[in-house]
Amino acid sequence: MKVVFIQPKSFFTWEAINVGYISAYLKKHIDVEVEFYSEFFDSMKTIVDGCKDADIIGFSVTSPQYTRALRLAKKVKTPDNWIVFGGFHPTNMQSIVESEYIDAIVVGEGERAMLEICQGNRQQIVHCDFIADLDTIPFVDREVIKQERNMDKCEKKFGNRVATLLMGRGCPFNCKFCASRSVWGREIRLRRPQSIVTEFKKVVRDYRVDFMGFSDDEIGVDRWHLKEFCRLMKGNETPWGCNMVAGYINEEVVRNLKEAGCTEVWMGVESGDPAILKDMRKPNNIDQIKKGFRLAKGLKRRAYCILGMPMEDYDTIKRTEVLLDEIKPDIVGFTIVAPYPGSWFYDDKYKDIDWTNVDEYTNDLTMTAFLSNEQLKAEQSRLTDKYSETLTFRNKE
Questions:
Q1: CA–CA gap between residue 384 and residue 104 (Å, rounded)
Q2: What pLDDT, in 10s, does the model give residues 189-239?
Q3: Could you tell me the domains of the chain?
Q4: How far apart are CA 285 and CA 278, in angstroms?
Q5: Is the dihedral of CA 345, 348, 349, 352 positive or negative?
Q6: Which of 375-393 are b and which e, b meaning 16 or more Cβ less than 10 Å from the residue's Cβ?
Q7: Under a CB-based contact definition with an 8 Å cutoff, are residues 143 and 206 in contact?
């Protein structure tokens, strides 16, 4: 059996580690040939030719990727293959399975579902239970996802070789702008610290990694797990970074991170207005944000800020600006609420739109009770100009 996975192009991407997990899981359980193509690197002809003898073709699809994914599916669909869409968009827009070019969709986590499909499940919607023990999934199949291409591209663009890892899946929080829970759930499932350390060292060795980024929504909610991971990583010389909740940072956490080689922490500030933070259901208040950034000095501290909550106005944005001037992040990024399927902001009025140009960094859809879309973009532009020296690369593109 031959399975081909395709990554449609969108705004930006790192390596397709979730495809790499599925590939590794399939190879563990069945005799299968797996290939992977990415529109970021491969031509349309290369992709189409690679699919000609495939039995199953899987597309990993976020909302901005959906239109391109469907275009590709149209080109590779034959009576002899089975087209499967998985990821955030299919999980939250299950009606897409009615397309003549899509045979089935995977809802939620992909490993067990894709294994069932390879074993003959021909239901249109395949939804399996979460894998409770993530250590039963082999390490990411980085050979099949052609990790080296991403490394070379990153090195050319940023000057260093960056790879990513996952400690676990699931986020216990319920932020309105986020759709993560729709795929991974709200219960945290963590890999054993030793397993993470082993994969970290393997990837660094195999791919000459200069910096490792953890793709988890956040780490450190389970304090023992982070402490044990840092203990095992003590003396590590390869720098790494991760998302963290400011309210979970204390002196001991920062000390452990530094001893383990962590050089960056990325925190969701989002807003400097207490009412906005409460409305978006952030697990932080203003005092916790200030304390988290103060304690994390010595690490490169990134602040994520998001504009466009329903009650956003010029005053609430000004409060965000005042907060940033006080905490002085080393890197800062400004996004605009995107009403993606799976987030609290999705509405059926968006059901038939083309999501290709809807990005967290810009879109033509979001407005507030007080600010038009144009006014939000103007404020974003003003802020990116003001903080240009510490701006995240995505705001510079």
A1: 42
A2: 999 999 999 999 999 999 999 999 999 999 999 999 999 999 999 999 999
A3: 2-126 (3.40.50.280), 160-396 (3.20.20.70)
A4: 8
A5: positive
A6: bbbebbeebbeebeeebbe
A7: no
